[in-house]
C-alpha cells in the first residue's frame, strides 16, 4: 500500500486500495488537530467543515471523516450535499471555521478519491501544514475523550448568494431571458451539477449532469478530448440560432474551468485569463497584481502592461498563487491547467465565479469570447498558438535519466532554433531565437512528463513539441 502523502493539493489514492475508510478516519482528525494548532485565530469558532464531491462513496467517506473529527473533540459541520470545493473553502472563511476537509479527487479518473485540507482563510493550506499532518501519522497523539457536536449544513445558499453579488447578475439574466445569449455547461458528472442554474435562476443547458462515478470512462478534466457531447449540443443549437452562445466546462470539483465559444472553438485558460484581466481592469475598474505560472501565455504580461498592472510569476501549483494572495493585492491569478482565482474573493480557484465574470464580459461587450481575444491580440500586437502534451513515464528511472540529461547536457538548439535563455523556476523553460518557448517539466501529481510550447503558429508549436517528444524518447 502506498504511504499517505499530500501532493500538489491534498492526499489522493485509489479507492479500496490505498484510499480506505480506516485511513480516512486516521487522517481527518490529525488534519483537524493541525488546523487548530496552526491556523485557529482567536475569533475562530473551533468548528471543522467536512464536504465532498460526487465520486464513488464520497459521502460515506465524508461521514467517516466527520465522525472521526467529532470523536477527536471538534465540532463538525458536515455538508448535506456534494458541492464545489470552493464552496467549502468559502464556508470555512465565512463561518470563521478552523478549516475544511473536502473529500474529492478533483480531475483524476474515477478510481481515485482524495482529501483536501483548506484553511480558515478560505484556501489550500501550505505544504508546511500538510507536512505536519504527515508527521503526526507516524506518532498520533492521544485524542480527546469528549466528542464535539456534529451538525449538517447546506453550503449552496451562501455560496450562490456570494457569487451572485459579485457580478451584475441582472444584466446577465436579462441577456439570457431575452435570448441574446444561450448558456451551455458541461459539469463532467461533477460537483458543479445544477450550480450555474441555481445562481442565475435562468435556463442553462447542462450536459453530463448525472452522477457517473466512472466519468464516462474518461476523467473529469476540462480537455477537448472529453467534451464531445458539449461540442455536439452546441453545434446543433448554433445551426438553428444566430445569437451568441457560450459553453463552460467545470472539472470534477469545479475549481478548474475551460470554455467553448459560439463557433465551437475550445478556449483554455491561456485564452480566458487575458479576457478576464481586461474585463476586471477595464469594465470593473479593479486593480492589483496579475499572477501567472511559468507555463502561462506570453500575452498575459502584455495585457497586464496595457492596464498598468504589476505581474508576478510563480512555479506551477495554485498554492504559490494563493500564498501570494494572502499578502498582496491581487487582481487575478491563473494557471494553464484551468485554475483561476480573484483578489475580490477567497485565495482559491473558483470555476463558477470565473464563468460569471466571463458571462459578464460577453454581455457588457456584446462580443463573443473569441472576438474579445482576437481584439486583445490586436491591441497587444501579439498573436500566438499554444499546446501541451503529456508523456507517460515508464518508471522512476526514466525520470532520473531525463533529469540527468537536462542538467548535464544543456540544450543549445531546439527544433533548429538557438536557445537564448533557460529558466528553471519549475522544470526547464527554453526561450528560442524565434521568440517561441518550450517548457519541459515533470508533473507533481502524476507520473508524466509535461511538454508545453507557445509560438507564433500552431505549426511551430508542434515542431517544438515533436522535437521534445523525440528528445525524451531518445
Ligand atoms: O502539472 P502538475 O504538477 O500535475 O499540476 C497540475 C495541477 O495539479 C493540481 O490540480 C494543483 O492544485 C494545480 O495547482 C496544478 O496546476
Can you tell me about this structure?
- The protein is built from 15 helices and 22 strands.
- With 474 residues, it is α/β, with parallel strands linked by helices.
- Strands 1-2-6-5-3-4-7 form a seven-stranded mixed beta sheet, with helices on both faces. A six-stranded antiparallel beta sheet has the order 17-22-21-20-19-18, covered by helices on one side. It has a five-stranded mixed beta sheet with strand order 9-8-10-11-12, sandwiched between helices.
- Strand 10 and strand 11 (257-260) form a beta hairpin.
- The longest helix is centred in the first third of the chain and has 18 residues, at 21-38.
- The radius of gyration is 22 Å and the shape is globular.
- The two termini are 33 Å apart.
- The relative contact order is 0.10.
- The mean pLDDT is 95.
- 6-O-phosphono-alpha-D-glucopyranose (G6P) binds at residues 8-9, 106, 316-318, 335, 337, 339, 443-446, 450.
Shape: globular
Q: How are strands sequenced across the largest beta sheet?
A: 1-2-6-5-3-4-7
As a whole number of angstroms, the C-alpha radius of gyration is 22 Å
Secondary structural class: alpha/beta
Query: What's the mean pLDDT score?
Result: 95
Strand content: 15-25%
Bound molecules: 6-O-phosphono-alpha-D-glucopyranose
Tell me roughly what share of residues is in helical segments: 25-40%
Please tally the β strands and state the result. 22
Question: What are the low-pLDDT stretches, counting only 5+ consecutive residues below 50?
Answer: none
Q: Major beta sheet, specifics? A: 7 strands, mixed
Distance between the termini: 33 Å
Q: How many helix segments?
A: 15
Amino acid at each position: 500500500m502506498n504511504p499517505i502523502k499530500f501532493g500538489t493539493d491534498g492526499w489522493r489514492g485509489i479507492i479500496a486500495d490505498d484510499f480506505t475508510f480506516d485511513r480516512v478516519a486516521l487522517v481527518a482528525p490529525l488534519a483537524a488537530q493541525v488546523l487548530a494548532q496552526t491556523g485557529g485565530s482567536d475569533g475562530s469558532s473551533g468548528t471543522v467543515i467536512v464536504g465532498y464531491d460526487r465520486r464513488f462513496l464520497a459521502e460515506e467517506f465524508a461521514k467517516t471523516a466527520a465522525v472521526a473529527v467529532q470523536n477527536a473533540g471538534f465540532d463538525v459541520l458536515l455538508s448535506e450535499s456534494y458541492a464545489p470545493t470552493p464552496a467549502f473553502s468559502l464556508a470555512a472563511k465565512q463561518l470563521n471555521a478552523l478549516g475544511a476537509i473536502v473529500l474529492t479527487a478533483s480531475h483524476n479518473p474515477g478510481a481515485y478519491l482524495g482529501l483536501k485540507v483548506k484553511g480558515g482563510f478560505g484556501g489550500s493550506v501550505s505544504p508546511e501544514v500538510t507536512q505536519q499532518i504527515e508527521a503526526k501519522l507516524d506518532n498520533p497523539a492521544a485524542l480527546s475523550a469528549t466528542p464535539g457536536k456534529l451538525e449538517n449544513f447546506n453550503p449552496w445558499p451562501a455560496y450562490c448568494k456570494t457569487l451572485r453579488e459579485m457580478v451584475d447578475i441582472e444584466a446577465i439574466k436579462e441577456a439570457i431571458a431575452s435570448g441574446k445569449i444561450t448558456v451551455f455547461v458541461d459539469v463532467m458528472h461533477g460537483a458543479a451539477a445544477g450550480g450555474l442554474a441555481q445562481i442565475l435562476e435562468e435556463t442553462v443547458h447542462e450536459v453530463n449532469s448525472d452522477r457517473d462515478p466512472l466519468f464516462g470512462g474518461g476523467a473529469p478534466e476540462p480537455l477537448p478530448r472529453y467534451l464531445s457531447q458539449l461540442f455536439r449540443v452546441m453545434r446543433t443549437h448554433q445551426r438553428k440560432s444566430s445569437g451568441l452562445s457560450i459553453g463552460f466546462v467545470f472539472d470534477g470539483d469545479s475549481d478548474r474551468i475551460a470554455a467553448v465559444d459560439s463557433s465551437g472553438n475550445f478556449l483554455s485558460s491561456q485564452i480566458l485569463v487575458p479576457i478576464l484581466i481586461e474585463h476586471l481592469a477595464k469594465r470593473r475598474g479593479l486593480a492589483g497584481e496579475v499572477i501567472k505560472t511559468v507555463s502561462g501565455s506570453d500575452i498575459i504580461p502584455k495585457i497586464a502592461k496595457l492596464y498598468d498592472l504589476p505581474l508576478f510569476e510563480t512555479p506551477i501549483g495554485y498554492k504559490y498563487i494563493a500564498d501570494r494572495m494572502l499578502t498582496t493585492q491581487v487582481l487575478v491569478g491563473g494557471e494553464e491547467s484551468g485554475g483561476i482565482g480573484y483578489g475580490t474573493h477567497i485565495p482559491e480557484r473558483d470555476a463558477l465565479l470565473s464563468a460569471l465574470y466571463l458571462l459578464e464580459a460577453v454581455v457588457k461587450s456584446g462580443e463573443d469570447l473569441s472576438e474579445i481575444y482576437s481584439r486583445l491580440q490586436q491591441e497587444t500586437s501579439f498573436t500566438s498558438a499554444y499546446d501541451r502534451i503529456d508523456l507517460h513515464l515508464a518508471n522512476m528511472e526514466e525520470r532520473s535519466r531525463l533529469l540527468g540529461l537536462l542538467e548535464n547536457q544543456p540544450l543549445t538548439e531546439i527544433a533548429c532554433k538557438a536557445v537564448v535563455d533557460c529558466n528553471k523556476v519549475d522544470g526547464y523553460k527554453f526561450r528560442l531565437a524565434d521568440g517561441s518557448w518550450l517548457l519541459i517539466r515533470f508533473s507533481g501529481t502524476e507520473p508524466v512528463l509535461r511538454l508545453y510550447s507557445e509560438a507564433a503558429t500552431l505549426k511551430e508549436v508542434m515542431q517544438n513539441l515533436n522535437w521534445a517528444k523525440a528528445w525524451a524518447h531518445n
